[in-house]
Batch of 3 targets.
Target 1
Amino acid sequence: MTLLYFAWVRQKTGLGEEHVALPSHVHTIAELMEFLRARGAGYADAFSDPGRLRAALNQEHAPFHAQLCDEDEVAFFPPVTGG
Amino acid sequence: MTLLYFAWVRQKTGLGEEHVALPSHVHTIAELMEFLRARGAGYADAFSDPGRLRAALNQEHAPFHAQLCDEDEVAFFPPVTGG
Amino acid sequence: MRTLRIQTEDFDPGAEIRALAAGRAEVGAIVAFAGLVRGDDGLSALTLEHYPGMTQREIARHIEEAEERWPILGTTVIHRVGRLCPGQRIVLVAVASAHRRAAFEAAEFLMDYLKTRAPFWKQEHHGTETKWSEARRDDEVAAIRWNPA
Amino acid sequence: MRTLRIQTEDFDPGAEIRALAAGRAEVGAIVAFAGLVRGDDGLSALTLEHYPGMTQREIARHIEEAEERWPILGTTVIHRVGRLCPGQRIVLVAVASAHRRAAFEAAEFLMDYLKTRAPFWKQEHHGTETKWSEARRDDEVAAIRWNPA
């Protein structure tokens, strides 16, 4: 799947985009965040407080209980500030 | 006093501006309209229906009972249509 | 910063918008309204007439009222008179402010005044026919909403 | 007629306004909003980041919603991203309609969306200090007024 990070989430993970295989035990965005948190110090920092994050699934805002497939594009970012 | 006519009032009187001495028996805009109506066919037509006219006294909208002085500028016109 | 002109010549909306913001870092929002002559019902031209002394002072008074009601930083009002054909620009109102809400409201307030109560009269030309426009009810209602009795 | 661009380059409000009206005799009103970077609190620059795939489709969807809600004849939305300094233009929304009320309301609706819910993130540079802007409460309220629950 494609993962995108914006604003300070991108800064903390150290990258804007990456491609990962969806682990078999990860079915929701919440579980994906849990999985990502274990990938290193930057990720642990970025995903330490889910309340500060928002997610999009295939370019639409999505709640953390949304179900995932391996072809999905999932984005993580802080609440949008608008233009 | 200075009299100004706009839009179809100007067309009916045949002129946009004129200067007249305020007759001693004319004290209000209503009386001025009565006086003007007697000045010829074009004036009679222009002032035949006061309900279709509006007036301004010294460049401010004014009711027909407004009092006049000889130095005043009085304008007659149909209701404004805006720009 | 105030610009108010009644003129027969055309104007350049882009240049007026630039002038309102030029060198003023506190301006965050500019709302510009450009009005054009519509070619409805086979209209071939309009002729606009106004009462010059009254137009200037009434528009200036409404700009002052807008400045009192909203925190605006600059206003431009340009209105054309004379003969205008469909597609030609007839009026520009542009308002600068720190934030968008004030700029939107002040621009709409000024346009409602100009379109309903400013001392302009319009003659409509349809081919060889000519008639004077009547004052419109819905426009009166639009102006009244800023000054409920 | 729809124009939607997210770009780093500047734009020309006058040219965009002209393009919206060009050759269309049914357009009587154009409302244009130009947003500029304010130099408040010693701001030296902003850097805007966005989510390209989402920005385009969300803005397009809001333009469609505006077209359904108001009788509008054309819409232009241009939003800049990247590094912007105080005084620079950041956004343009322009709406053409037959009458002014629809153009004012649709332009304000689109601006409220862009300023509050569009997927942009802003980094504020004050000299050598840099911080991410927080989402603002009053803007959220402004967006909600178009969609009361």
Note: Chain C has four helices and eight strands.
Target 2
Amino acid sequence: MQREVASAGGAPASDADPVPRRRFSGRVLLPAAALAVMLAAIFVLQPRAMSYNGMRLLLGFSLPLMFAAMAQMCVIAASDIDLGLGTYIGLVNSLSALLLADRPLLGVLSLVGCVLAYAGMGAFIEARRLPSIVVTLGASFVWLGLALLVLPTPGGASPAWLSALVRLKPPLVPLSIVVAVLLALVGHWLFMRSSYGVVLRGIGSTPQAVRRAGWSLLTARTVLYGLAGVFGLIAGLVLTGLNTTGDANFGAPYTLLSISAVIVGGGEFFGGIVAPVGAVIGAFIMLLTGSLLSFMDVSTDWQLSVQGAILILVLGTRAFRRRRA
Amino acid sequence: SVGHADGTGVATGDTSGKKIALSNSYAGNSWRQQMLKTWDRATADAIKDKVIKAAKVVNANASAPEQANHIESLIVEGWDAIVINAASPTALNGVIQEACDQHIVVVVFDGLATAPCAYKVAYDYTAMGKMEADFAIKKLGGKGNVLEVRGIAGVSVDDDIHKGLVDTFATAPGIKVVGSVYGNWTQTIAQKEVASVLPSLPPVNMVVTQGGDGWGTFQAFKAAGRPTPTIVFGNRQDELKLWSDLLKADPGYDTFSASSAPGCASVAFWVAQQVLAGKKVPNTIYLPLPRIEQADLESWLKVMPDGAVATPVYSQAWTADLIDANAAGKPLPPSPVAKLGDM
Amino acid sequence: MSGATDSLVVLGGIAKQFGAVRALAGVDLTILPGEVLAVVGHNGAGKSTLMQVLIGTLAPDTGSIAVAGRDETAGYDVRRAHALGIRCVFQELSLCPNLRVFENVRILHHGLMGFGWPRRARRLVRAALDEIFPGHGIDADAVVGDLSIGQRQMVEIARAFTVTDQPVRLVILDEPTSSLGARAAEQLLRFTRRAAGRGISCIFISHRLREVLEHTDRVVVMRDGQVVARDRAADLTEALLVERMGVMADAAHAASTRANGAGADLPVRVDIQPTAGGTIRLIARAGEVVGLAGLDGHGQRDTLLQAFAAPRGGGPGARVDGSVAYVSGDRPREGVFPLWSIGRNVTIGLLRRLSRGGFLSPQAESATADEWRLRVKVRTPDMNNPILSLSGGNQQKVLIARAFACGADILLLDDPMRGVDVGTKQELFEDIRAEADAGKCVLLYTTETQELQHCDRVYVFYRGAITEEIARAALTEDRVLRASFGQTDDTGQHSGGRADAA
Amino acid sequence: MNRRWLDANPWVWSLIGAVLVWGLTVASVEGRGGMETLSTALGFATFYVIVGIGQMLVISAGPGNIDLSIPSVMMLSGYLSMGVMHAQDAGLVLGVLVALGVGLGAGIANVVLIRGLNIPPMIATLAAGFVMQSMTIAYSRGSTAKPAPLLLQFSLARVLGVPVIALLFLAVAGVVAFVLARSSFGRSVLAIGQNARAAYLAGVRIPRTMAAVYLVSSVLASVAGLLLAAYSGGASLNMAEDFLLMSIAVVVLGGTAISGGQATVAGVWSASLFLYLIVTMLNVLGVGAGLRYVITGLIIIGVLAVSKSRPA
Ligand SMILES: Nc1ncnc2c1ncn2[C@@H]1O[C@H](COP(=O)(O)OP(=O)(O)OP(=O)(O)O)[C@@H](O)[C@H]1O
Ligand SMILES: Nc1ncnc2c1ncn2[C@@H]1O[C@H](COP(=O)(O)OP(=O)(O)OP(=O)(O)O)[C@@H](O)[C@H]1O
Ligand SMILES: [Mg+2]
Ligand SMILES: [Mg+2]
């Protein structure tokens, strides 16, 4: 009401101002607050976590998840959804463990091929106007199959440089946090600040308007999926470094985890509404759910319930806030 | 602080202040549920007897990344030993190494991990495949059609069993493996997959399974109206019950059950405890595969509640014997027989 | 084709066929530099289709396009059109609601990139808004989805006039005023004059003939996919124009009034306290057409929605007695079911009435659809055609038919005539009056003062409250306008419920 | 079969696919067991169909609506119903009631989370599914999980080689198709799916319709759980594992728009048959695990691509 009145006729411009501003920050503030609460709970339950080493360990596996979340966010920006991201990460994991150390050239070529395939999938979805959910579901089988073909049983080895890279111990702040900050900045710049990022988010809400302005939807969706392919690739590589080996089945859980991370972080399934900073925070939330479970000493029977409850709590609070706003 | 001067027997070092945790990759099937039960029983008794101070379980939802995260949390919490049923043979190696670096005792079992610093409690699954194949060759007189029900694609247990089967069948040219499907160790999926190939198959004389899939396989044959072949069963209660029913209808229904026992969790627990107590333990400890013959069938069924998985409960002493046998390269001690209330 | 050298755009023999529908049947059109050209015609005449061809989003079946004396027919598309300085504000809004205002500007300008582009985009759109719609109150950082439909229309228009690396030579405005308030519409029309003075041509499409006559240089009349007349605006009158359009109605002069003299004894159907309070409640009785006036976004729509929600357990402060039906002028967002046929779009409003034994009877359904096709004159051979095959105005007729057909006691009309041509509008208002005479209660929100003449009483809204109630007899444009800015006229304030017009 | 007819009946493509795959399978074994293969496929496809119909209703109610709790509902319903039956015919009625009760309860939980707490359906149903999975795990310890003999017989019964449950759910599919096309409820679902705001203003009762859609989905999932547990001779913890992705795949491959507002019931049947027959074909041809996945994925994408009428 207030908004309508303020915006009409001769009302001063400043009246309409606070509404969008507040809504924007709310999108990232809530997951940030949720993360803070979780961390507080963890520190209370387990004071040892409150050290460089504790944080380093707790957040060790956040690296692949935050890149996976960023990849998923690229797809969700187009109001699509990627059910194949997890197995794609598994494929990258398998290929890099098998080839990168021994035959680097072939390894790099195959990984470039992966990214191209991802971009091609985006182009295909746009060109034929296909529902992404089913194409990526089909693709998930293809990635898994390819991974099993190249690496029928877990094995291979991470190149030494890669393992060393992901186990870097920068002074003062653990690597995960450094990378998270950088990734959030890159993601924010890419989607919220860069000039083409505007177009990329635009196709998620009103593709025909973007097309009428002379943009190629084919290019835009190809770029988005290509970006998803790149972030997914990094997730897979980081995984190889952390695990030191490859496993075709390893990536699969990242599909649901990454979707949850994006949504918990303030993104929405439809309308090109994404929050790159939130996605990184969401990745941490999803990750720490597991640690919290471990520290809370819940009966094994009910561990899944607690996970569900945490999801409901975070998203329920957001919906509640939005309704009151 | 070792039982005998030569280092054999139960190590008696003081572990009453130690804490041992289990990181389990998946809890969603009856085998794993039985496993958690035996773990609970073993640790509860050990805590009551002041052998250890605390124990706990964290389950990952069939997700290796989640499990890796759990293990890192356990490291932060400062557990003295972490027992792991791993979601991937390789993917947890990084965190396991991390745990070892913090001087935490790591024992992996069932779902193994290849990290060199971890103690491994292992079944020889290739031997299980060989055992089944040998039985089939003998039973069929070297000639006949066999259907293979495999586990989950890309998982090493499945590969090992399959390898044992293939290598052994290669020595018997009269045996034809007419079909091979993935049953995912799940009755419904095994049923679906077997049913899908059945119409196209010639008469099947024998089915070799990996456990957890025997009942589903039987259902598929029944639904297709085919005569029941000889099925090598796993050790779920429904499979053993089915075998017993089949025996009642046809006393000549000759087969056996081979599968890993969920009780191996208790072996892994005692291995961890023994390492903490100062016993010298080889890096890999093989466990005898419990094999149930027709003669023992009814006595097993008697002590198994519905929905259980056949398993002995292994004691500290038995585990010490097992360690010693492995260390000395001697024959493994036979699996104890289950008692009422064990499952 | 005349004046090919000094004309800006020359369209020659443009034809376009959609299945069996001949949308354009060989149209020739010339646009001169610095002129404001009006294109008028009945709903479905082909105006929007022609503009889509001109902006390059739709390829014609045959025909040629020349811009600034050069033939551009081959490879003509939106990008080329933009490069040539042709812009379009489409009939259905074309902004991305998830993006901010300045980001939507960036979408239009491919060259707006590099360091500091947001600053430049903000400055561009602010300048354009300030120039076209002084006092607009729109923040360049606002998320478009949070803006009202009128504000969004302003943003889209302002965006079309912004200049970066590409020139602006021609701006097409497809029914821009239908979603703007009266004041903003006036501002826009005055601006197009000034723009023309700077050499920027405008094509202006509207069903409001007065606007057309007062503010344009030349008028092109389309009928059934063809241009049937080209005149200088100065040579035309409303009557003449209506005649050329081939619609038979004596325009807005004959605003019909209540036929029966029913009075205060009729039951009160709606009694609402507007959200922002105030001393005047909105009261409407059976048999009345009550107008809601004021500038766009001052609480009229909220009041209608309040009335709509009330019988279904809505909030306090609202008493509504009877069943309600709602017609929105925001077709794509609030009216149309895009996957369905025209017929189904009508019958969704009256499912219960068409059911026999719990299930819909196909005969009854198609009979109803056909009945309403004739009653509101939907231009289609077959009600089984998809709704999206209709022109904007015809879609709007379908929505009105839906509300009429459901037989509700109370009709809530939210700018119901948006995009409807004059002839049809006249007929629809007669239908509305007939419904009221039959005992219905009608609430009509419109920003077009002319349409208020069809109301028995008018409530003027300002800042969420009612500032004045005006009887039909006392209704003047001036008075409505003053009340719209919160200045009340003492004499008419408490005229007590009903007015004795006629 | 002109193009327009094909556009209106997208299920034809997966039916053609099913026939091709079946032909290829039978040809590869010199025509052995063609009819049995079909009969088996009908039996298994039925389970996909049961949950697919529910998922289809949910999906057609608009963008973002997807029920991810289906496998968990199946599991819980299978376990609890088998548990109270105790393999006795006397417990049959109670068992069926318990299954339906699980479906209703799960449906209500989903509705409360989605409409009451405003949580996006995908996350809400996922979370509800987690909780139900926990409940099943907690309950399953030491429980009986075998069906009543009558139910077992019913689930396996055939008439002229056609499974009775397949016939039953052919009829159910017919009823659902009729309801969607010709009832106030069906029209309401499709209207909400196309444009929720317009539906609200057209007087469609959104809360009650959406609640009904999620309830139907959960109840159908619980029925599927009951029948699947019976068909496989007992409930097991992971019996519904592949139903999450399959329930979505059969709906969309069958021609239902993922963006809502349009539903194709026949497509659920043809896509279910198609997907099961692909499994059959790959098993019969003895294709290795890796290649099997690749082929399955490519076939799914391929059928989707040809069945979509209008390329850009
Ligand atoms: N995509 C389409 N498919 C089929 N028919 C169409 C399509 N677009 C337009 N038409 C038809 O073309 C004709 C011209 O439509 P157009 O939208 O150009 O009319 P208009 O003059 O803009 O009408 P209005 O004043 O109502 O906006 C109409 O009969 C319409 O039904
Ligand atoms: N703009 C809208 N878009 C979508 N849904 C809406 C919209 N406005 C309201 N609704 C839905 O309608 C509900 C409020 O409507 P209301 O309570 O009047 O329905 P109702 O007729 O009482 O329904 P029922 O009697 O069937 O429960 C809201 O909770 C919301 O779910
Ligand atoms: Mg138009
Ligand atoms: Mg209500």
Note: The domain at 3-308 of chain D is CATH 1.10.3470 (ABC transporter involved in vitamin B12 uptake, BtuC).
Target 3
Amino acid sequence: MSVDNLYRELILDHYKSPRHHGRLDPADAEADGQNPLCGDELLVTLRFGADGETIEDIAFDGHGCAISQAAASMLSEEVIGRKAAEVAAIGKDDTPLVAMMIESGTPLTPIRLKCALLGLGVLKVALHKSAGTPLPEEWAGIDEVEFE
Amino acid sequence: MSVDNLYRELILDHYKSPRHHGRLDPADAEADGQNPLCGDELLVTLRFGADGETIEDIAFDGHGCAISQAAASMLSEEVIGRKAAEVAAIGKDDTPLVAMMIESGTPLTPIRLKCALLGLGVLKVALHKSAGTPLPEEWAGIDEVEFE
Amino acid sequence: MKQTAKLDARLIRADFPIFEQLEEGKPLSFLDSAVSSQKPRQVLEALEDFYEHSYSNVGRGVYALAERADAAYEQAREKARAFVNAGSPREIVFTRNTTEGLNLVAYAWGLENLGPGDIVLASELEHHSNFVPWQEVARRTGAEFKVVPVTSEGELELGELELFASGGRLRIVAITAVSNSLGTIVPVEKLIAFAHEQGAIAVIDAAQAAPHRKVDVQALGCDFLAFSGHKMCGPSGVGVLYGRSELLEQMSPFLTGGGMIRRVSVEKTTWAELPHKFEAGTPPVAEAVALGAAIDYLEGIGLEAIAAHEHELTAYALGRLGELPGLTLYGPPLERRAGIISFNLEGIHPHDVAQILDAEGVCVRAGHHCNQPLMHKLGVAATSRASFYLYSLPEEVDRLVTGIKRAQKVFA
Amino acid sequence: MKQTAKLDARLIRADFPIFEQLEEGKPLSFLDSAVSSQKPRQVLEALEDFYEHSYSNVGRGVYALAERADAAYEQAREKARAFVNAGSPREIVFTRNTTEGLNLVAYAWGLENLGPGDIVLASELEHHSNFVPWQEVARRTGAEFKVVPVTSEGELELGELELFASGGRLRIVAITAVSNSLGTIVPVEKLIAFAHEQGAIAVIDAAQAAPHRKVDVQALGCDFLAFSGHKMCGPSGVGVLYGRSELLEQMSPFLTGGGMIRRVSVEKTTWAELPHKFEAGTPPVAEAVALGAAIDYLEGIGLEAIAAHEHELTAYALGRLGELPGLTLYGPPLERRAGIISFNLEGIHPHDVAQILDAEGVCVRAGHHCNQPLMHKLGVAATSRASFYLYSLPEEVDRLVTGIKRAQKVFA
Ligand SMILES: Cc1ncc(COP(=O)(O)O)c(C=O)c1O
Ligand SMILES: Cc1ncc(COP(=O)(O)O)c(C=O)c1O
């Protein structure tokens, strides 16, 4: 993995100026989680539109490395206006930051992938919780911890 | 260690016709023990002379390999008529069978040494128990098991 | 496709450096693989290569070296998963050995789930490692410890199984798949079915099974299954515990410390996901990687071919030993026996037999084989035991027979 | 006579095969020895030699090969005994790692001896492996778990120690000898004295001490002391627990199974002597033997020389890092610090720091280092950490500084 490629302007920009940062209050769904390897933590809050299934607004809060923060920021832009069920089905390789790295020919290593997927993970927890559906096995445990 | 040397006539003879085999009843001192590696077991009973410290008679009972049985048999011949304190101080290398192997230039390997020393071990337990003195550390545990 | 062709033990033997040396001038006839197997070059090279090129601790490092170590370790887990056909690598915990795996279940499941009135069932056939932990956890929790008896041929008295039915109080059935003393192949499916009928969990000791024949935890339907790397061409210091994820998830951790936590504070600590929840501290990293290489090695040859080879040798050995006067054979008939043969010679203690055999370069085990309850049942303190593996040869059986004759002459 | 001459790290480095390779075209600057050390050829050769010439299980075999394996294993125990100056090899238990050693004490001593009202004391400095087991055993037994606080420089608030005096209710004091995050050298003698005054046992985590400086359990007077082979040039999969024999004798076993029993029957089981009572199942045989070789290696160089070398490098690194703007250093002053340096860069997460350093071939750790309570106290989620060992070189510090500057440029 080339560092120049990883710490490209786009990612640094999302890290330094995260989009949709903060907390929505009230929110229709929320969840938090952490990457136990580094203590990175994210809280997601979101609101649905009148149809109860289109994501109308979303906010991420928390702290962590450039990759986890930028990935969450980029993801938040991606999901606004989309249906919950559709978003809940987004695959690991399809989040904007991960996809971008794969495309550039230097995919993230497994450890950094965990950073990059923290945002998608907590978002999935939030959506499954609000839909009352069980979390798929590969995300197990991501929501077990209280947010500080 | 040469097997011919180990299974020499003297040792086989003691194994096949053990001296002082059986149990003394009544006895002035007794103890039992086992080699947990192979399940070999020995019970020693002995009687003191009028002075209360000369070993007047001794008997070993139990079952085990040729080495443990012959060593006990040879030891029993060696200790009759000797003082308890003197016998309690016999060193590992000084039992007849072990000394004989050392002399012949092919000392017992550590595992077989445990077989050969079982008799001395239970005898020491018996003597220390009857004298009320503590067993030296290197014999610890040899008396923890009931004899069957 | 698995290779089912007959294996060529002579060719395989060339993979094992230890057979290149002579033992006191004689070729090494290693008939003690049941206690631990020898290691092929392929495994030793994997070990060395890992230490020389990819060594680092796992699970925590960002740098490339750590990522390599991590990938190698998790790849080994995946190999172990496929080896026993577990549903997910989350169900594969690396332990030190079979014994630790069984203790893990006894502590982490047993201590929390057992109480007075409950029953823990093992068998007379069990190795101490699948006997004492259950006896101990029963003692600590006030549960009752019972054992399924065996016949004089060393097979479970399955007809008596119903005696242990007890309206939901039976909580654990712990059974070996293959007896390490007698080679008995146990019909574990029946015991697992019985356990589940009774609402108990089924714990399988596969220490003697996994190295020699295909083990499929999903086909078996067992709840836990443990085995050791060192008996299957892998290094010492590593074993595997399979556990059904539903159970592993409900359980509290066993050992606690680095690597198995989610968050630690003075007030409260929470646990990491499976399987890490059960791997506290630095794991046997290089050992797990080398165990992965051992699995590749065994699968390259094929478990069926290994079992068939051992079966053939066992048939030959039972025939040759059966001809010897004054020799008692223990255990079940050939059809229900793995490559393990226990025997005794009249008037000669197993220790002396093993000693005399050693002078011929023949290694056999002498003792109770960590099977005292079974020895008690057989009415002996000890036996001599020969056991085979993929590198065993018929001439080793011949040397065994020659050595036995020599022992009989010495003690005549 | 111990060698006290200055060590030549460049010469030593040539013993370590891993440094022969380039990492992405750059020399490997391995500044992460606190998590696990690299292995010298001497240790890898001992491992291979054992597997190729003397491998067998231990403790049970009559044949010559088994006697050789046994002798090698017990010789390793004797080396470990001498390494920490224990009074007897009976006090040396081979474990998997430090974590298992500490858990052994928590289970086998703690579960039996603690109850409601009792106090278990650790510190905010502890690695999770010397924190969570005590927290857990306190939870299970109803005892209270307390921690000695640390100053903002990561030193124990010894002035507050008396607050934990409690008329005989203090039962365990568990303390690390060296902090793995901050390098703090803890005055463990004081804590051991305090523990004994209070009637408590003193358990020392020597994971970061034993590899780097002479540890003498008799001089310390501690009751238990644990360390890991993999952090001291030894293989993964093996560790050592020292325990005072009086205590080990009183204790029930921890893991049960093969090798640790005296006699087993359905009714009752009795235990083997020390140290075997605490070594259930097949031990990490080859790993222990290779750890013996690692001890020989370290002692050949001399622990004093190693500590002096690391001290010199730490002084150099603290100087160079101290000059960098936007860099925060954590931990005590040089005089009371081992070769470990934690730091943070303003506005850059440690993970990103480590990632950018990796591109320079520099390996540092990023995270909480299994020290969440300490991180909490320092008010950070994570730090970057560089740590040194006998093979570390000043130019690795220079490359670290270059890498940090690069990170600062990327994130400028
Ligand atoms: C101070 C300290 N204690 C305990 C441990 C745990 O060691 P291991 O993972 O080898 O059990 C470590 C190593 O990470 C450590 O640094
Ligand atoms: C049937 C059986 N179970 C358990 C064990 C224990 O294995 P380990 O010593 O590797 O823990 C053995 C090996 O001795 C065995 O044969």
Note: Residues C 35, 97-99, 127, 129-130, 176, 180, 205, 207-208, 228, 370; D 258, 281-282 surround pyridoxal-5'-phosphate (ligand 2) (CB under 6 Å).
